[in-house]
Please model this.
Amino acid sequence: MIRITLVLALLLMASAISLVTVRFQTRELFVASERLKSQAHELDTEWRRLQLERAELARNARIDSLARTELHLVPVTPDRTIYLQEPAAGRTPAGGRP
Model:
């Protein structure tokens, strides 16, 4: 009888220790999960901000303005256009390729 009581007491202690361990691990996993959810929210917010920034940088008016001011480009006009003619049919260009 004492042996059975002792075995049951040891099993009860092992069960209690495993219960405490499982609860501790559950709390750690919950904290990690909440931390990851917060990080995912921050990354989503950053992604949206970057999408807005990309849309702003890709606007045609902004590109046109930068081309005119920083690169000093001017609009194409017929008098500034250079037309290239295709070589005649039996002649090859200077590089030797047709």
Q: What stands out?
A: The mean pLDDT is 89. DSSP finds two helices and no strands in the chain.
